[in-house]
Specification:
The chain has 436 residues and is mainly α. Helix content is 69%, strand content 6%.
């Protein structure tokens, strides 16, 4: 990987792309520290130091690089865009018009991208209003004595300016991500998420060292690094793992020329769903605690939720989280990969799997293989997601534990894809062909 980056910096056009990408990432991090107008920044910092458990908003805070709890102009981060993309991807299966657009190629993809932008702005307004209302009521930092002083002026005009600023920040982030995709290296949105998560690693690691009790905290610090190396190796191994189903295309005679007769394969990844099941499960588990916090209820059901679904170290919470991840892994694979459509396309172009008849038997075989490899993929996702909760029991460091859950899956996944793109571009520029 390091050699690929070194060779990329030696290539002039790739060096420009890498420097442009790094510049956008630096600009993104600078915007994550500019406060929204109307926020008492000193009260925010006092509440961040006073309250240690911010798990309710942890997912959004993770994708914003810590900007959410600091109420900066990039507080919403890339989360509205991720939500809009997932919603449209799910609606593609339900709405025939979106499915037709998806099949139209580049023109249809451009229209779906435009719909995603509109939905992102609408979700940013909705989420920004919720965050500002939560901060104004003091519920953003429950238990902090300065919570009610975060937004001194709760007038309609001031609240509207704050929501508009956060929405504009999300729009700028979306624009920066598209700039990276067009003029830089890799997928822009993925790299901005990577930047947000990776920016919190040094702070989290140092917090583990400071809170440690053995050898001045260095034993805990080195133990977490060792666990992190093992987890990253496991994630790389599973993310690269795939089942290759061989496909043979029969020869076709068109006039006097023969076409086809080639062999290829269908790559089915073990983790076909990626990080989406973890995001779905985390979001769903936040809903009960959010309802209790917003209603401020003291009923029996509210007390039960506070006891079992607020902190991640409870066995019921961990078991529910694990089962939801397994369920959403199968659910997302079922809607994102259609064995019948793949089988029909293979039959249309004269392709077949050796030993399997074309048509319905091929679809049944693909569905059988996909179900078999989704089981280890879903169990792997569940175990990786439980690492921060196990760390909470072992080290008391769920908030500061960086190597686990959504963070390590995204960081490793984006890193692998970016390195692959750099290597492919290097190969295109250095390809000499058969004749010299």
């Amino acid at each position: 990987m390091l050699s690929a980056f070194a060779r990329a910096f030696q290539t002039p056009d790739l060096r420009k792309k890498l420097l442009f990408t790094l510049g956008i990432m630096v600009l993104f991090r600078l915007g994550s520290h500019v406060p929204v107008p109307g926020v008492d920044f000193q009260a925010v910092h006092a509440c961040i130091k006073e309250t240690k458990n911010n798990g309710l908003f942890g997912l959004v805070n993770l994708f914003s690089g810590g900007a959410l709890l600091q109420l900066t102009i990039f507080a919403l981060g890339i989360m509205p865009y991720i939500t809009a993309s997932i919603i449209l991807q799910l609606l593609t299966v339900v709405i025939p018009r979106l499915e037709a657009l998806k099949k139209e190629g580049q023109a249809g993809t451009a229209k779906i991208t435009q719909y995603t932008r509109y939905l992102t702005i609408a979700l940013a307004v909705l989420q920004g209003t919720g965050i500002v209302a939560t901060a104004s009521s003091g519920a953003l930092f429950s238990g902090c004595v300065y919570a009610n002083q975060i937004v001194p002026d709760t007038g309609v005009f001031r609240i509207a300016v704050m929501v508009l600023t956060m929405t504009a920040g999300t729009t700028v982030i979306m624009w920066l991500g598209e700039l990276i995709t067009d003029r830089g290296i890799g997928n822009g949105m993925s790299l901005l998420i990577f930047t947000s998560i990776a920016a919190q690693f040094p702070t989290s690691m140092w917090a583990i060292k400071q809170s440690g009790t053995i050898g001045g905290g260095w034993v805990e610090f080195l133990s977490v690094i060792a666990i992190g190396v093992i987890v990253v190796m496991l994630v790389i191994f599973v993310e690269q793992a795939q089942r290759r189903i061989p496909v043979q295309y029969a020869k076709r005679m068109i006039g006097r020329r023969a076409f086809g007769g080639t062999s290829t394969y269908i790559p089915l990844k073990v983790n076909q769903a990626g990080v989406i099941p973890v995001i779905f499960a985390s979001s769903l588990l936040y809903i009960p605690a959010l309802v209790v916090q917003l209603t401020n209820s003291q009923a029996g059901w509210a007390v039960w939720i506070n006891q079992h679904f607020v902190r991640g170290d409870h066995p019921i919470y961990m078991a529910t989280y694990f089962l939801l991840i397994v369920f959403f892994a199968f659910f997302y694979v079922a809607i994102s990969f259609n064995p019948e459509e793949v089988a029909d396309n293979m039959k249309k172009y004269g392709g077949f799997i050796p030993g399997i008849r074309a048509g319905r038997p091929t679809a049944e075989y693909l569905n059988y293989v996909l179900t078999r490899i989704t089981w280890p993929g879903s169990l792997y996702l569940g175990l990786i997601a439980l690492i921060p909760m196990i760390a909470l029991v072992a080290f008391g460091q769920q908030t500061n534990f960086p190597f686990g859950g959504t963070s390590v899956l995204i960081v490793v996944g984006v890193g692998l894809e970016t390195v692959k793109q750099i290597e492919s571009q290097l190969q295109q520029r250095n390809y000499e062909g058969f004749l010299r």
